[in-house]
Amino acid sequence: MRIGKIAPALVLALAAAATTACGGGDTSSSAPKELVYWASNQGTSLDNDKAVLQPELDKFEKASGIKVKLEVVPWTDLLNRILAATTSGKGPDVLNIGNTWSASLQATGAFLPFDDAALEKVGGKSRFLGPSLAATGASGQPPVGVPLYGQAYGLYYNKKLFAEAGITKPPATWEELVEDGKKLTKPDKGQWGLSLQAGQVTENSHHAAILGAQQGAQFFTAEGKPQLASDPSVAAVQQFVDLMQKDKIVNPANAEYADTAKSLKDLSDGKAAMFMNQASAGSFKNIGMDMANLGVAPIPLPATAPPNGRKVTSFVAGINMSVFKNTKNPDAALDFVKFMVSAPEQALLNKTYGSLPTVQDAYSDAAFQTEDVKVFQNVLANSAEPMPQVPQESQFETLIGTAMKGMFADVAAGKPVDGAKIRDQLNQADQQISAGS
Amino acid sequence: MPTALDDAPAVKAAGAPGPQGVRRKRRRVALPYLLLLPAILLELLVHLIPMVAGLVMSFFKLTQFSIRDFSSAPAAGLDNYKFVLDFNAAAGKSLLGSFWISILYTVLSVGFCWLFGTSAAVLMQKDFRGRGLLRTLFLVPYALPMYAAVITWSFMFQKDTGLVNDLLGTDSFWLIGDNSFWSLVVVSVWRNWPFAFLIVMAGLQNVPGELYEAAAIDGASWWRQFRAITQPMLRPVNQVLLLVLFLWTFNDFNTPYVLFGASAPKEASLISIHIYQSSFVTWNFGLGSAMSVLLLLFLLIVSTVYLGLTARRRNAVV
Question: Which of A383, B9, B22, B135 lies at 20 to 30 Å from B259 by C-alpha?
């Protein structure tokens, strides 16, 4: 009776709701091709990103007839959104991924491998910067994306505060940084030598990786087994935590800093004299920093290199562009990737975002000839190594970064963080990574 | 039941049921099921199927390597359970830690919510000027969008720029370290006590006024009236209220997530946050599912024991 009529209708309605709720490009061949693109948040806000990207997408549509539907995804949601899309198989056609996740996402098998043929379609392998291309997946396997925005770490410093303290040049070694930091720390005036995003998990993990490399740490064995609790790793984490604990050149309130904005503001307001961050001239300008006072140098190295220590002052940071294997329009997707990594787009977008082009032919633009940009360019080319390109990389970042966040909280509360405590935490991280392998 | 028995002779009295009668009877039998069908279907889709999926997942080694194709995930047997229940190892130790934090959080939060809700509801019984306004004000935390409310608290708890340190004249951290647990309790109580207030207030409407009048004539004090009339009359309402608050609070994910972000300080790492981190941050869905199943079992046992105890008490009273 009625039940017979209602049930199929209900099932149909539910099925329709389920399919229309999912993303993905237009599949009909007669309709104009349409791609869905998830962009990561690069600009000052999601709206700012839309304002930057939409004219470029319109340009691409005009030239190719392919419409690109844009969604800007905040950083905090990006990895989970990608993971959900990977699980359901219903995701965008093209998307941005943080390049440190490359090997982890590669392991899911959800992304189109950029083999030589695919790389050729987007302009050829030789166009890309070597270090950036190295951060697109595990070595020996076809990458799961191409680099889109290049980034590297540098040490920003406030020239005015340096001049006031009689310091003439930025520190080149950690010993100098601590020494300068002490001269610049005046808690009664609310001024500190260095600002840290100590409550930010990923930032902490990046610094662990950089300092770890300088101390000679290898966080994973050649077989991919985690070994976070090694002597050099413990030394690296201790050195970083000690900037607040022992050297006292960091305001303990930084243990609460979970985003970049506060540290940028501290440097701009003269509350901190130094700040280690990825290229962020655009953000400094936005918050009203007197750009004449802003200097940048590579992150320091130890005065005496520890055994097996590597001359690393940054990891290869940046954003890659990947294509979902499930896309119904792989050719259109590759056309779009090719457009985004073309020299004019690379120059325009990286100029706007204050990042670095990932293709050689975009560097002729005058915007990338300034002294500051050259510092980052040199770091990226000569003293940057990719984060561990292993499938467990995202676990590594989360676990070590969270542990360090807790250590800073302890230091801020006056609880000592010694080597044994650090080793214990890193041992726990090792166990947890192993459980998920 | 009585209606079915009443109906039966009526049908028989009318002689053998004709085709119309059979249809009517069948419709009467089918109608409740038909009306329940959408709810059953949605219940299946929203709750039961994911629950069964979660249970199945807990027996597999489901990580980022196999998430795309569930069927390829290697079986783990009871390994996931063994791993999280090994309290000498990192995962078990941290799970146990989160469990105790959740217990303490639940006891404190539910206790204060009930205390504030009941006190306010009893005080609001008497008619006085401004009662309506006060009632509305009390309900504001409950009516505010959760995210906006909790994020405002997180601003107020900031060390250097927050209002809390300003008002208390302190210089403490509230979002990291030991205090983070207390921040969590404060926000939770602030958000949930209006619910207790609403429910108790509704319960009080059912207490007959004559009881108080009779008690007053007998010379019973306000406290005596509260103990001998209000509390017993509110018992059924309280039983449901406490169970619902317990389940909500123990499973609370939104408050810590919005207050602290994806990585809550270890002092305030509730079990829900812990499971989320295992599943979605370190990408070990099998392990996360095993923890969820254990959590479900715990809540089921507690609820069953609670319902059993309260039913026995009710029967004893009757």
Answer: B135
